[in-house]
Give the backbone structure.
Amino acid sequence: MPELPEVETIRADLKLEVLNKKIEKIKILDEKVIGKDNKEKYYKLKDLKIIEIERQGKLLAFVLSNNKYLLIHLKMTGQLVFKNNKDIIAGGHPFSDKDKKSAIGYILPNKHTRFIIYFSSNKVLFFNDVRRFGYVSLVNKEQWLKIKNLYGPEPLKKDFILVKLQNIFAGRKAPIKAILLNQKLISGLGNIYVDESLFLAKIDPRREAKSLKKEEIEELFKVILKIIKEAIKYRGTTFSDYVDSKGKAGNFSNRLKVFGRQGQKCFKCNNIIKKIKVAGRGTHVCENCQK
Ligand SMILES: [Zn+2]
């Protein structure tokens, strides 16, 4: 699932391409993507421009020139692919080996394409989603602010401060991993960066959140910021399949310490990394380093 660094990377890339471009047409290939919304209101976006792209956690908001907000949530398997005459820029869910083999990911639109925005001068933005959990929604400013309020503080934003983290953990019996994944409490973190943060902070993901000592929370706070910053610098972990023509294809995956490394040796202590289940999610842990 794309997490904060991946969504931030596609946001920054798209911003360079679509800002102030006129929307020529909207195509809805799968109505599930807009839920119970009326299709007609999306067709009325014709001739508007995108004047900003905002983000809250993993949710993207395209701000339109009529002050409405077009929200796109990639969820588990959503991907955004932007195509102009010479470049392809993509972010979100990577293609499976099967898709790569059949080249389906490289044909646009393809059977996973749900929603398309056509801009002037042959620029097109495709929203593809294999498992169809992602969604598109059109809201006004008031509704957007309400939605943003449902999310917890986000790393790298002003509201992510140590004392908030302490308050969030205090009295909570759930495993620390579950708390970090809960978007209402902290926004933007998913399975990859939670496992990596807990490893660097030397905390066992199964521990009750309330059992964390002051120094452990301080360390966790620091490493979350460090990892998220670093992952954004390397353009995230989950998408290296598409490279734009400028060759921007950094990848954080070679820097992962525990995620996806089950059965391999811990870089710090040579103990074997285990994959266990915590909060219903596959969780990577070095039981020697993490206590
Ligand atoms: Zn270790």
The radius of gyration is 20 Å. The chain has two domains: 4-149, 162-285.
